[in-house]
Each structure stands twice: as C-alpha cells, then as structure tokens.
Amino acid sequence: MKWSLGWALLFSFLSHSLSLSAQDYHPNRLLVKTQNEDLIKSLPQSKRVKHLFKNWYVIHTDDLKSLENQLKGLKTRIIVERDYRATSKKLPTPQAREKTNLPQSAFFNDPKAGDVWSFKDANRHGSSIEKAYQAEFPQAQTEVIVAVVDTGIDHNHEDLSDVMWTNPNEIPGNGIDDDQNGYIDDVYGLNTLVRDDEGNATGDTMDTHSHGTHVAGTIGATQNNGVGIAGIASNVRLMALRTVPNSGDELDVDVIEAFLYAAKNGAKIINCSFGKDNNEGGQAVKEAIDFIGTTYGTLVVAAAGNSSRDIDSRLTYPASFPSSNLMVVGSTTSSGRMSWFSNYGKVNVDLAAPGSQIYSTTPGNRYANMSGTSMASPTAAGIAAEVLSRYPHLGPVELKEALMKTVTKTRRIRRAMASQGRIDLFSTLNAIK
Length: 433
Hints:
Oligomer: single chain
Structural class: alpha/beta
Number of strands: 16
Order of helices and strands: HEHEEHEHEEEHEHEHEEEEEHHEEH
Strand order of the largest sheet: 7-6-8-5-9-10-11-12
C-alpha cells in the first residue's frame, strides 16, 4: 500500500467517524493490544479476557462503549479495535453446468476429473495439473494440512471423507475437551460462529451453504478413487474452520481465532475465500497473518475479491494487507482472460489462477460449477500444497516466491498483478527440481 502513515491514519479516522453508525460490529467484544494483561482484566466492564497471540487480547463485555472509554482513559500504551463484520454479501453459489466437451482425464480415473478445466496445460489456459503428474518429478511424500476457513465442509462427502483432517486427541461426541485445548469435540476443526456459554468456539463444522465444500474439493478431493472429481493436491488433509456465515458476514475475532487454531494444529496453508471492503484501521488480522507465518510457517492464500476493481487504490481485506506470508489470487477464465468480476492490482494481487466455471464438490455427494476469486484461491492453495508436499523444506515466503516466479505470463493479464501471470504447477516443480 502506497499511503503515507499520516494520510492512512487520517483517512481511517474520518471514515470511522463519518460511517460509524453504518458499520456493524460485535456488541460484546473488543480487540485490545497491550502489554498489561492484568490491567485490562481489572477493568469493571471486562467480563472475560482471552489471549489471542503476542500482545493481542479479546475482551468480552456487557457495555462496549463504557469499556472503550475506560481503555482510552488509561495512562498506558494501548490499541483498541472493535470486532467489525465484513457486512453481508452474496457468496458464489452453484451454477448451471455448461457443456465443456473436455476429454476424459488421461491420468485420473475419477469420472468427472476431465470436467475440471484448470487441469489443462498452460497453452490451453489451465495450470498444468495433469502435465505435472505425468512428469518425472519427486513424488509427494509429506502430508500437508490445508485449513479451509469458510462456511464449513461436508465431511461426509464421498470425495472428501477420506482426506479430512481429524483431531487425533479428541474423542468425537463425548462432550469433553479431551485434549484440553479449550474446545469441545473439535474433531474436524472449529466453528467460531456458534459459541458456548463461556464464549468458546464449538466443533460443528458441517457446511450449511456449499461454498466451503466446493473450495475444499478443488484443493484436495480424493484422487483416483473412481468417484467424482480429483483435487489438485495428492497428499493433503483438509481442516474445516466454519468462520464465514452463509451471508458472508465474518467477524475479525472469528477470523483471527480460526487462523491461530489452524496454524497451531499444523496447517501449513490456509485458504481464505472471503474478504471485506472496509477495515476501519484495524491491524489485528494483518498481525495475525504475520505471526502465524513466522511462528508456524503457515502461508495464507486469499481471494482478491469480486468487485472488478484495482485493490491497490480501493483496498479490500485481507487481500490488501502488506505481508510476505500472504499470497493474493485473482481469477482467470478458460479462454485465458481475467474473469470479468476479478479484482486486480500490480501491488496487492500476486498471481492469477483459474476461477471461472470451476467444477467441484458440493454438499450431499453432489458436484457443481462455481465462479469467483473464491474458486481461484483454492486452485492456488491446492497447487501450493502439492509443491510443499514434494518440497517440505520450503517456508511460506520461499513457497510464495517459487509460485510467483514460475507463472505463465500472458499479455492479457501482465498488467493486472505483481507476477504478471497465472499459476502453473508443472512450471513450479520443473524449476525447483
């Protein structure tokens, strides 16, 4: 981002002041950055304080404005952020299936794998997935956990049940926090949308929309099982984080908690097919991305957004956060063009990936096309996971650099993003070997 700090703060203050009444935020939670945990716990309006990471905490309160005033009156350095929502928006939904006339897959025995056009070679505007599998590269030896921070995942789906991550120290359905991590029955992941009486996230990660299940299938649907499609990554476990409501109206605290849970439980890649246009000056999510990258070696892959705009000048989040541990993905079509809806930006969008009319899993053992940078992001996340499983020594920054340096550069998208091209699995593996 090119703003000076002064202008950024001024703009943030004015935007916050002028539109505060129009903003939506959690009425009982505040994000606070401080070195004095005991002090914030002692405040009369602090009902419960939970440590998130480093010096960041979330305070639960029955009187948010009074607590804000108390915090502002403290004679100590402290940063206070409201827990803002993204505001409601329509998530991509299943579309009528178009005839693709794609041949049966030459490598995968999954009967619908040929309908995933992103598997095609770069000269046919895909990401060279099948070409990479047919080449003599090192095989995927290391299992990679990919966290899907979304609307949940249908963990019973015929093409996903075998690749779901499960918490090895949690006994399903016994109502006990077996591993004493603060969450009960977090078997497949975490649900930050539904909380218990103590404010703790719960364990029901079943998808009630379709968005998260579709994202999950693109990343890692079981390959060569003779059923449905094939996912991009061959040695993957999918962790479900139900953090995005069906209305797309996610909260900052929920996003941060999902990121931290995923990283602490071994996820090396987190897919974020969500975002918001206003950030109200908040830095907690950005600092969480930096933290999990440096502490746990986790790469966050995020959708650029679907507003057909330059997010270098009209920012969107988390895509516009400056972080070396964040890879932002725009969307392309089967003809090689930028998708009409895709955001772009020479600075804030790193690379492109197929995202229009992507065929993948949906709840109830079904399959459908969806379009959006929501679909491009998991295409890139799946490729990142496959590369990492073959070359596990790569850290998040190295992995991101490897993917960006080996894109297929095209005239149609070279001015739309930092790498000037579309992600390509074959090219990346060929460059690393």
